[in-house]
Amino acid sequence: MNGGPSGFHNAPVTRSFVIACALLTLIFGVRGRSAKLGLSYEDVIQKLRFWKVIASIFTFSSTPELIFGLYLLYYFRLFERQIGSNKYSVFVLFSLLASLLFEILALMILRDQTSIVLVSGPYSLIFSSFIPFYFDIPVSSRLRIFGISFSDKSFIYMAGLQLLLSSWKRSLVPGICGIFSGSLYRLNAFGVRSIKFPHIIAQFFSRLSWSTPGSLPLRGDNVTSVSAHANRHLERNFGSSVSSVPEPTESSVATLVSMGFDDNSARLALVRARNDINVATNFLIEAQSH
Fold it and tell me: What's the mean pLDDT in 11-31?
């Protein structure tokens, strides 16, 4: 499934998070401790091991979970491209904190039934991202396999299901907590969707995100300038309109916008591509490269 331009273009926060998860999983895995970082009632409530809370957020407990987890984190970079790095940082922080509170509550409820140890890894962010994925990303294609209908989104759901059930109850609890935190963000609990980091903080974190020449900082004004440049490039090379082509459908425009392209450029590219999403995507990527 196409998640927009390849790599971490315009997604510095996602890049930083993916690199941190990969490095910490490797470090703890070499030392044989990655499977011991899951949270338990004893760790959180009785012994107050806060270092373990931080480590458990970024470190996957096994190689299969690392593979599926990093794949989903990489795919969900499209949300950072869609809402900007500043607001996406707020989404990440809110998802992590809200999900942690839900996990602690679950451990308190389950402490008398079983000595459950939750699986480690950024389950909160991954499964929070499935909420906007379900509501905001339209289906762009469908296919049938052995008489069963699948959409291009089905494969993302299957990867998430594999991760959710990878350790049964140990992974099911943090996954559900992530879905709850994503739902709270979707419902704009505490007005969280209108929160943005101050400019000075955004600048600080943008310098820590291993920025590349192709990526954008956390401020929103550069996004506008790049989009305008891409729009001018499309108009110059492909013309502003093609009269014989019908108006692009809103679902096609929404698909391109979800990949990180602005609305005007998406419509112009679709007109030029005669409403072929794949061809329009290539036009937009070419325009951005210039």
Answer: 91
Across the range 161-169, mean pLDDT stands at 92
Residue 21's pLDDT is 95
Q: Alpha-carbon distance 277 to 251, whole Å?
A: 10
Half-sphere exposure of 24 (CA within 13 A, CB side): 21
Contacts of residue 99, defined as CB under 8 A and 6 or more positions apart, other chains included, come to 123, 124, 125, 128, 174, 177, 178, 180, 181
Q: What is the predicted pLDDT for the residue at 242?
A: 45
Question: Could you give the residue ranges of the DSSP H alpha helices within 111-249?
Answer: 123-128, 130-136, 154-164, 169-186, 199-207, 221-238
Question: 214-247 as b/e, with b when 16 or more CB fall inside 10 Å?
Answer: ebbbbeeeebeebbeebbebbbeebeeeeeeeee
- Mean pLDDT in the chain? 81
DSSP 237-274: HH-S--TTSPPPPHHHHHHHHHTT--HHHHHHHHHHTT
Output the CA torsion 146→143→158→91 (10° steps).
-170
Task: Determine the pLDDT at residue 139.
Answer: 82
Tokens of 2: 């196409």
For residue 111, pLDDT beyond 80: no
Q: What is the pLDDT, as a whole number, of residue 92? A: 96
Q: Which residue has the tokens 């990655």?
A: 34
The answer on pLDDT for 217 being more than 60 is no
Of the candidates 12, 74, 81, the one whose C-alpha atom is nearest the C-alpha of residue 288 is 81
**What is the number of other CB atoms lying within 10 angstroms of the CB of residue 199?**
11
pTM: 0.74
User: Are the C-beta atoms of 65 and 121 separated by less than 8 Å?
Assistant: yes
Cα dihedral 25→28→34→39 (10° resolution): -100
Residues 220, 46: Cα–Cα separation, whole Å: 44
